[in-house]
Amino acid sequence: MTAKPELYTTKFAQFVRTNTEKDPAPPADLIELLIESFLLTDASRDQTAHAMSRIRHDMVDFNDLRVSLVKEMVVTIGVRYPEAHDRCVLLRRALHDIFKRQHKVSLEHLTTIPKRDAKSYIENLDGIPSFVAARVCLLGLNIHAVPMDRTTIRLLVESDILTSAGSAADISQLMLRHVRAEDAVSTHVAIRKAVDRYLVSGRPARVGRSARKSSASPSKRASRK
């Protein structure tokens, strides 16, 4: 039986401190945040910013993006964008689902309903990846979440911070047990800074090696007794 992934909490705390950055300004538009989050999944912040700039330049509005063909969306964000086609297929599905439900491309109604209902709405959109749902909840709706994508998980495993890989949804749930709600945004920002560096260098984060054996999570230590 494969052991469940566990987090070396002390090393993770060091990792976050090392990559601390200023928290971002609150998003002005939830749809823009959703699109940005689709683009940021397994990509860098620079890649995302460039693609968002091209979308704003090429599209009249986000409904224009919704009605575009997938191949047109790919050309807009760049044919060399990581997993451009698959990414645009999922984004288009999500935008169409929102339009079908709201009769417009808008998520502003989510700010007026209970957080539990807003979270359920986002998580159940057609084509929505775990990372995107978690990031919209965290940054746009002030809901406790820790967005995880495959690149982040690979970085944490290679940096000896996470004992093994798992699905983005499962690792996100694991992180929720160790990241306080008030620290979730700063933790996410620190992770993305480290991911940016990792995507350029291909090298894992350097965190104090001596902490590895002593910094397993309480549940991990308990399982060894």
Key words describing this protein structure:
mainly alpha; Endonuclease III, domain 1; 58% helix; 225 residues
First and last CA, distance: 19 Å
User: Sheet with the most strands?
Assistant: none
Query: Would you identify the CATH architecture?
Result: Orthogonal Bundle
The strand count comes to 0
- Give the ordered list of helices and strands: HHHHHHHHHHHH
Strand content: under 5%
List the uncertain runs. Answer: 210-225
CATH class: Mainly Alpha
Helix content: 55-70%
Rg (CA only) = 18 Å
**Number of discrete helical segments:** 12
* Overall residue-averaged pLDDT value: 92
Total discrete domains: 1
CATH superfamily: Hypothetical protein, domain 2
Helical/strand content category: mainly alpha
Classify the fold: give the CATH topology: Endonuclease III, domain 1
Query: Which geometry do the CA atoms define?
Result: globular
How does this structure look, described?
With 225 residues, the chain is mostly helical. The chain has a single domain, classed as Orthogonal Bundle (Endonuclease III, domain 1), CATH 1.10.340.30. Helices cover 58% and strands 0% of the residues. The chain has helices at residues 9-18, 30-40, 45-58, 62-66, 70-77, 84-102, 115-123, 130-141, 150-158, 168-176, 184-201, 218-223.
